[in-house]
Design a protein that fits this description.
141 residues; alpha/beta; 5 strands; five-stranded mixed sheet; single chain; 13% strand
Length: 141
């Protein structure tokens, strides 16, 4: 009679189901993640280097005040909506097919007003948009 303990074989771990789950997770994240952030509004953001921009033809100035009032070339837009904005931009542009538009918005203005101005200009085919900024002062000045 042999009473010595029997050696049992080490259990095998089957990695195939785990690999399948990892590949399914990888596939899920690849499909659900957007790698390219596209925007329909293309804006030429100014650099705050302190140098003056080269003056081109007379730009169209859109000023958006904190209370939501729009001024186009210092003329108040009575009713703020896309149709009035398009009409005023078209008359301010005149014969220029792609005028330079400078949007100056108050720091407390609603973001929606800025997007409305940019989107309206983009829909009209105007691509030269600039957001006006002011250079921050350093402590040494």
């Amino acid at each position: 009679m042999n009473l010595s303990p029997q050696r049992s074989e080490d259990p095998d771990v089957n990695l195939t189901p785990m690999i399948d789950v990892v590949f399914l997770l990888l596939l899920f994240f690849m499909v659900s993640t957007s790698f390219i952030r596209e925007s329909s509004l293309k804006v030429d953001l100014p650099e705050a280097t302190g140098e003056a921009m080269v003056e081109q033809a007379q730009p169209i100035d859109i000023v958006i005040q904190a209370d939501g009032q729009f001024l186009i070339n210092d003329e108040v837009l009575a009713v703020v909506n896309r149709d009035n904005l398009k009409t005023r931009l078209r008359s301010a542009a005149g014969d220029n097919q792609d005028p330079h538009i400078i949007i100056s918005a108050d720091a407390d203005a609603q973001y929606q007003h800025i997007v409305t101005a940019m989107d309206t200009a983009q829909q009209m085919g105007y691509s030269k948009l600039t957001l006006a900024t002011r250079q921050t002062r350093t402590e040494n000045e």
